Amino acid sequence: MYPITRLRRYRKNEGLRKMFSQPFPGPEKFIWPVFIIEGRNREVPIIAMPGQSRMSVDVLLKKLAPVVKSGIGGLMIFGVVEDSRKSLDGGYSFKKDGLVQKAVKEVRKTYPELVIFTDVCLCAYTKHGHCGILDKDGDVENDSTLAVLAKMAVSHAEAGAHSVAPSAMMDGQISALRRALSGNGFKDTILMSYSTKFASFFYGPFREAADSKPGKGDRKGYQASFDNLNLALRESVEDEKEGADILMVKPALCYLDVISKVKANSLLPVAAYNVSGEYSMIIASAGRGWGDLNGMARESVMAISRAGADMIISYWANRYEEIFN
Ligand code: PBG
After folding, report:
1. Disulfide engineering: 165 pairs with which of 192, 253, 276, 310, CB 3.0-4.6 Å?
2. Residue 84: which CATH number?
3. DSSP labels for 131-143?
4. 174 occurs within a structural domain
5. Is 164:153 a contact under the CB 8 Å cutoff?
6. Could you tell which of 32, 36, 167 is best to mutate to test the pocket of ligand 1, judged by most ligand atoms within 8 Å of the CB?
């Protein structure tokens, strides 16, 4: 107790502060989400996410050179397809030579050291923008959606994805994907479940990027409600029982308590998705001169890590060196 104890002793100068600091997550813990479009030599900036763009695969390969050099651990690949590819059942999502499947192949060939994750969800492939197949009342039908998600996951594994990440929030999606992957000879594909994924208001910029906004309604019928913590936690518990290899909490910053609880209740690695809205609000604030960009980014990532995230899916990843070093 004061005056014997003086906590300021530990932080009197930079050297001391560094000595007593906890490690900031290294670049190998980061997964960069990328948006692939068709064609060649195409780059379309995402207005709502400065610093991020939709890219054709050749452009992505070029942009990846310095990012890979900085030591980033992995990529999360999203496909953004033309409207003509979209349908009621999202059938394009599992085409052997589809956009994501081709991108996975090329990235693996060029950068074998990167861990490749793919997002498995139908919202960017359905005309209505929902994450699954609709029944006649307009509700997402759980079990018929599972069959499509399973085909999509197998096609990604076939293309070479190390890990598939189902984000549709259908019940039983982990069991369905595991069965399909094992049945098709992909027994080592890592299943990263978007296990506790909330119906969040922080996905807005992403939906511009992925062109995946639901035409009608919202996603509250399948994504977890932030008004019920127990149900949200049970989503991760069930996915672990179904055989997930990695659990995830998404978004990250409003849900640090959830990250800590999922981590405390499981021995599985826990990922946190630092989502588009969390990224863009920091950039918007810094852009108005209301805060220091690098400082805010660093502080928020440190919080996610401290809460218990083992890996961080974040749009800061492609600027790791500039922002965090
Ligand atoms: C697909 C999906 C979404 C995100 C990741 N996968 C959007 C959504 O559920 O509407 C959001 C990621 C972000 O905001 O950065 N279902």
Report:
1. 192
2. 3.20.20.70
3. SS-B-TTSPBPHH
4. yes
5. yes
6. 167
Q: Is 32 in the pocket of ligand 1 (CB under 6 A)?
A: no
Q: How far is the CA of 28 from the centre of ligand 1 (A)?
A: 22
Residue in 131, 212, 226, 315 to alter for ligand 1 test, most ligand atoms within 8 A of Cβ: 212
Ligand 1 atom at minimal distance to the Cα of residue 212:
10
pLDDT at 147 over 90: yes
pLDDT, the chain, mean = 97
- Tokens standing for residue 263: 């981590």
Confidence check: pLDDT of 325 > 90: no
Q: Please report the pLDDT score of residue 49 as a whole number.
A: 98
Q: Is 143 inside any structural domain?
A: yes
* 119 CB near ligand 1 (under 6 Å): yes
Token duo for residue 19: 């000595």
33 C-alpha vs ligand 1 centroid, how far in Å? 10
Instruction: State how many domains the chain has.
Output: 1
Please report whether residue 240 resides in a domain.
yes
Per-residue buried b or exposed e for 258-284, using 16+ beta carbons within 10 Å of the residue's own CB: bbbbbbeebebbbbbbbbbbbbbebbe
Lowest mean pLDDT among 134-138, 146-150, 237-241, 301-305: 134-138
Host domain of residue 98? 23-324
Q: Which of 197, 241, 261, 263 is catalytic?
A: 197
Place of tokens 């961080």: 312
- Full-model pTM: 0.97
32 lies in a domain? yes
136 is catalytic: no
Concerning whether 250 is annotated as a catalytic residue, the answer is yes
Q: Whose CA is nearest to atom 11 of ligand 1?
A: 203
Q: Which residue has the tokens 């064609």?
A: 39
φ, ψ (nearest 5 deg) of residue 81: -105, 160
**Six-digit token string for 142:** 């759980």
